[in-house]
Write a structure and sequence with these properties.
By secondary structure, the protein is α+β, with helices and mostly antiparallel strands. It is 30% helix and 26% strand. An 8-stranded antiparallel β-sheet has the order 13-12-9-10-11-14-16-15. α4 packs parallel to α12. The longest helix is centred in the last third of the chain and has 17 residues.
């Protein structure tokens, strides 16, 4: 049976876990429906109880894992609504459980002393505004954090291209809110977005032309020490929105070393757990850190399964049915690839099990002999007309 390199229990100990942010309006996050769909993404590497949406626990989901010859990671804590989600977190606090969260929640929902580590530190380490205080200076791209009211004046000292990012402590994910500005038109749209969403602070950051955009991941606890988990190449669109990862082996040592230094800086401040850093490798053989994720990353499961899957070419991705009417065809298509032994299921969100019906979502890892094989499989998925692009 396939077993990950580490489970969350190996690293965090006897804890309970929730992957999703609190149910709050946040312009820098995916929709609530997408966050519910991703709630079970880490169950295969957990070996601890995970709070998941009920639509990830259906018979369809179980059958996909059965097709992959993997026991279905059924969870004891399930929610259908914000109230149910919050009630379970409140009960965890009352029961004095150690709670691992990706993002800080309201004190009314989770007691600060219920977190497995200092909650305020968790928030600090994941804020884009404090990157320079954590990362060694040589890895920091030119950047400044300013009051949003001073943005126009500050931009007089900058030349395109550059990147604008939200500079508040509001949680972000998946590249949401990152505005890459090559043209005056893009800059106008970016400023309009930050004004519309009421960002108090904005980060201006030099646009770095990279050879590769790496996600380097590490883990630390007293049990395992500081461990390098692996690296993947990040796939992003022209606007910088995250779109998956491909496993790579030939990573420059300078990149791995930079990530290790950043992880050590977090550990020195008190961080415990898994973290991943977005590191750009430039033509000048420089490393620049553009984002710090002191939490599990989308591709963490892929790195944990790299050795059991024999280091075949691997790609982490999340697929959605094109609409709810195609959920059955979407499921059958994904099940066929799982049965062929080229697709490892991480979670399946059954849109037909949700009030109002939503397009289903499948989180998975491709594993094949080459990236060309995977790209061919994906091409066939999109040609089917049931998978959203």
């Amino acid at each position: 049976m396939l077993k990950p390199k580490y489970t969350m229990r190996d690293i965090y100990g006897d804890v309970v876990f929730s992957a999703r942010p609190a149910h709050e309006v946040n312009p820098w996050m995916p929709s609530d429906e997408k966050l519910n769909a991703l709630s079970a993404r880490e169950t295969l590497i957990a070996d601890v109880p995970v709070l998941v949406h009920a639509a990830t626990q259906t018979e369809k989901a179980r059958k996909l894992f059965e097709l992959a010859s993997i026991p279905f990671p059924k969870q004891p804590y399930v929610y259908n609504s914000k109230k149910e989600y919050d009630d379970i977190l409140k009960q965890w606090s009352k029961d004095k459980k150690e709670v691992v969260l990706q993002y800080i929640h309201s004190k009314k929902t989770v007691d600060r002393d219920a977190y497995w580590m200092d909650a305020k530190l968790l928030n600090y380490l994941n804020s884009k505004a404090y990157l320079r205080e954590i990362v060694p200076e040589k890895y920091v791209p030119e950047r400044e954090v300013i009051d949003s009211k001073d943005l126009d004046r500050a931009l007089l000292n900058w030349e395109l291209p550059f990147v604008l990012k939200p500079g508040d402590e509001t949680p972000t994910a998946g590249g949401y809110g990152v505005q890459i500005c090559h043209t005056e038109e893009q800059l106008t749209e970016a400023k309009k977005l930050f004004t519309q969403e009421g960002a108090d602070h904005v980060i201006i950051e030099k646009y770095v032309e990279e050879i590769e955009n790496y996600s380097c991941q590490y883990a630390y606890s007293e049990n395992v020490g500081l461990q390098y988990l692996g690296t993947s190449v990040q796939i992003t669109d022209d606007e910088g929105v995250y779109a998956g990862n491909v496993m790579v082996d030939n990573v420059p040592e300078e990149v791995i070393k930079a990530g290790c230094e950043i992880m050590q800086a977090g550990v020195d401040k008190g961080y415990i757990g898994i973290a991943g850093f977005d590191l750009l490798w430039t033509e000048d053989k420089d490393v620049k850190a553009i984002d710090l994720n002191f939490r599990l990353n989308g591709s963490t499961s892929m790195l944990m399964y790299a050795e059991p899957l024999n280091h075949q070419c691997m790609k982490f991705y999340t697929y959605d049915a094109i609409d709810a009417e195609h959920n059955t065809a979407f499921y059958n298509l994904m099940a066929d690839y799982v049965a062929q032994g080229v697709l490892l299921p991480l979670s399946y969100y059954d849109g037909d099990a949700v009030d109002g019906r939503y397009p289903s979502t499948f989180v998975c890892i491709w594993h094949a002999f080459s990236l060309e094989d995977i790209e061919l499989y994906e091409e066939r998925l999109y040609e089917s007309g049931v998978v959203a692009k």
